[in-house]
């Protein structure tokens, strides 16, 4: 078998969780969205599959909304399964510790993928000149990427999709800060921390959906996406306790109002992802054990897949274009090869970086 079994493909029961299904499907849609959007192979095959390419280009990117919803859902499950379960250190030391752990959790595999992207891009530049191949990076550019401020600083990306890593960290820290502030203010004002926390999150989500999300210049900031992230948070709390369901209804009404003001397909995708998640949370799909294992594996390696797929399709596309510049069939084979190599490399990064570190310091992931 081309893809060796690793700890990430350990045997699992012959059932699938909805979270695994969403992560597996969404990650693959994002991969193929980028595959057909950049590089010489995409330009070669496009005239022969224009409808499929147009759909993947225009709508495949909407899969990121599923990850934003899941991000909020899993972050809430990790930090406070219910909004009344707030127990942060009043000094803020725990806040800093949790934010740092999240940063390290995201950056360890990210740095490995970034280094590989820089190396493969250098080889691609040696083989041929292509507008989609990143230029040689400066030290400043690399540093800003490691600090996850490259978009904010206006620095060119060294690979696709890295914007999401920075946004994920911002959103997680925003949720942390809102929950901590609710707890601290509740102690000072002798109010209910649960109600304050819910109010803070819904309030910022409202500003995000009605204002920030309508300004494309704010796409480098977490507030642009906080409405979708908060939808996932509310889904966790609504499904964990009936008393929070009215807040979920309020959130959905805000989404409807946001759509009435400005129709946005990403918000529709976010609502569909949340509905799919909510309907499937308390059920498991019985299926063939092989399929369950494969989908579960795709779910577990989804973050590594997201990080590593672009430099791989870049180098494979450069080789194919150099050896078979006009061959549609070889370009299709190149796409499939890039996809298989992506899964293989992502499996290695997941097992040797993500899992190895998590084994020493357990920490939940929302990616």
Structure commentary:
The chain has 367 residues and is mainly alpha-helical. The protein has one domain. It is built from 14 helices and two strands; from the N terminus they run βαααααααααααβααα. The protein has a two-stranded antiparallel ribbon with strand order 1-2. It is globular and about 70 Å long. The chain starts with 14 loop residues before the first strand and ends in a 7-residue tail after the last helix. The N terminus and C terminus are likely disordered.
Could you list some keywords that capture this structure?
single chain, 367 residues, mainly alpha, two-stranded antiparallel ribbon, 14 helices, globular, disordered N terminus, disordered C terminus
Distance between the termini: 27 Å
Q: How many strand segments?
A: 2
Q: Going across the major beta sheet, what is the strand order?
A: 1-2
Helix-strand string: EHHHHHHHHHHHEHHH
| Backbone CA Rg | 21 Å
- Summarize model confidence as the mean pLDDT: 86
Strand content: under 5%
Q: List low-confidence stretches.
A: 1-14, 360-367
Number of helices: 14
Largest sheet report? 2 strands, antiparallel
* Secondary structure: helix percent: 55-70%
User: Into how many domains do the coordinates divide?
Assistant: 1
Given helix and strand content, the structural type is mainly alpha
Tell the overall outline: globular
Short description:
With 367 residues, the chain is mostly helical. It has 14 helices and two strands, in the order βαααααααααααβααα. It has one domain (7-360).
